[in-house]
What we know:
- The protein is α/β, with parallel strands linked by helices.
- 32% of the residues lie in helices and 25% in strands.
- Strands 3-2-1-4-5-6 form a 6-stranded parallel sheet, with helices on both faces.
- The two termini are 19 Å apart.
Amino acid sequence: MKIVIVGAGEVGSHLAKMLASEGSEITVIDNDAQRLAKVLTVADVATVQGSPTSINVLREAGVGMADLFVSVYPYTTQEVNIVSAILAKNLGAKKVTVRINDEEYLNAENKVLFKEMGIELMFYPEKIAADEIVDQLRHSAGSESLDFAHGKLQIAVFRMEEDSPLMDMTLAEFAAMAQENDVQFRAIAITRNERTIIPKFDTKFMYHDLVFTIAKREGIAPLMKYFGCRKVDIDKVMVYGGSEIGELLAKALHGKMSVVKIIDKDKDRCIEMSENLPESILVSNGDGRNPDFLIDESIKDYDAFVAVTESDETNILSCVIARKLGISRTVAEVENIEYIHLAEEMGVDTVINKKLITAGRIFKFTLSGKARFVKYMGGTDAEILEYTVTPGSPITRKPLKELNFPANAIIGGVIRGSESMIAVGDTHIEAYDRVAVFALPESVAEVDKFFRA
């Protein structure tokens, strides 16, 4: 697949690295030579220096033969991305997607307008991140989670702590114990020492493992008990950081939580937010890394603390402090991918990275078209995919245990009509099933072949 990416900033560089590792032919356009030189250190790509709205530059990059065109130009207005995407479509690019920073463009009516101009997908990373945080706070488990089919199946992530009842138990032993209590689940992955593995029956749970599980909605509560987690219902949220994500998050939480408070060190920014946000949202000026300030702000009365400043270090540190002050649930925005593991090691419950979330939205366009969505979850480099099964595709031909499915991938669950089920070796996938797949990057292309008719 030929892919042209406009913009060698953080998002564009990460996309280039990820998509190049999947075997795609990538060309990156940017007018900044230093940014292009930097992207060459992380990904095997071709580069073209020049303006993203220059027709000659777009032609030089080969957009007329591109299967996918992604416009994520950094440090500029969204109009540059929109114009380059429209030009690319008219020059022959098959699919185009564009980064925006205006929530108005995402209205249903406006999305139709842009689709008529040839733009298949618009994404607003900050809005995606804010929505992701809201979704995470809705779940009662004190960890990251993901819904399939309106919650009929759920993926939940649990950290093995020293007092976990499952410590040193094998997956087979745990499965037998759960089966005795009629708890249906599947352990789909374990991240250990920054490496993700697909577990076998003889795999032992070890201290600080991140265990990814899939279960029916009613199975999550029993799993929480097995892993030594307690239910955390979120009703009062404190947000640290008046960033774009912070303001979007406060608006999104309004009406869903009984109390929302947003804090920022910049007094002028606090005044601005007081004018922009609904009156019921509390705005406070101060440093969220200062324990005395947090105590004065009655942090112990809150259920969750979310740090979304523009500093990864500040977000991680403030979450650690909030945890020590008694907060049950912490969420940190961490943009440096190398810091994600550090944040988790320091006890941050959920880590949000808008590059990874955005990458999942775009990566879907490189697959067969039967992938409903692709998502990345903190703590693993694997992808979680949901497919709708095409009649006659290879996945329907035999039971799972006879299919020679890629070793670094696993089918976790199946939605068939109104029925949900945990996938096992004898499960036979049928046409139109919705299937949840967990796959390491090197297996995604092979997995996709199973869903092509």
